[in-house]
Amino acid sequence: MAFAIKAEVCDPRAKTFAFTAQKTMYGGKHIAEGDTVFVFASENEGGQGLVARGVVTSAEAVAKKRGVVRQTPRVSLTIRRTALAKRPLGRSELKQFTDWNDGQPGTELNFKFYRQATNKIAGISGEAAAFLSEFF
Q: Which CATH number does the domain housing residue 51 bear?
């Protein structure tokens, strides 16, 4: 399974990305060392969407807080960049994909990252990973 992360990215051209205690959704908690991950610089944080593809070099689950009943699993990870995006892909490009049942990879990405605009790590389908690979 491939993954994508939408988070604050200070330097989109960095060779390594480190993310601490990131929220996970849609199977994102299963991310592990060696997995392919697509990095989106969050528009909420001034980013432009898809910026890089990389490989997870470390992934560590963050312990849940005591006394809090309902918590979203969180993961800290480090990613080694393997490619920079050559074309833009963000909220404005994915905005047209709103028929949640059409099965298109762009719709999957719009649903997982922009229907609920919080930053997160998400598992993505093989079709979505192939679609994203076209941007490199």
A: 3.10.590
| Number of compact structural domains in the chain | 1
Q: Which residues have CB under 8 Å from 79's CB, separation 6+?
A: 5, 16, 17, 18, 19, 37, 39, 52, 54, 55, 56, 57
**Beta bridge partner(s), residue 19:** 77
Task: Give residues with Cβ within 8 angstroms of 35, minimum separation 6.
Answer: 1, 2, 3, 55, 56, 59
- For residue 131, the one-letter residue type is F
Residue 98: partners with Cβ closer than 8 Å, 6 or more residues away: 107, 110
Residues of the chain with pLDDT under 70: none
Q: What is the pTM of this model?
A: 0.94
Query: Which range marks the domain in which residue 45 is found?
Result: 2-133
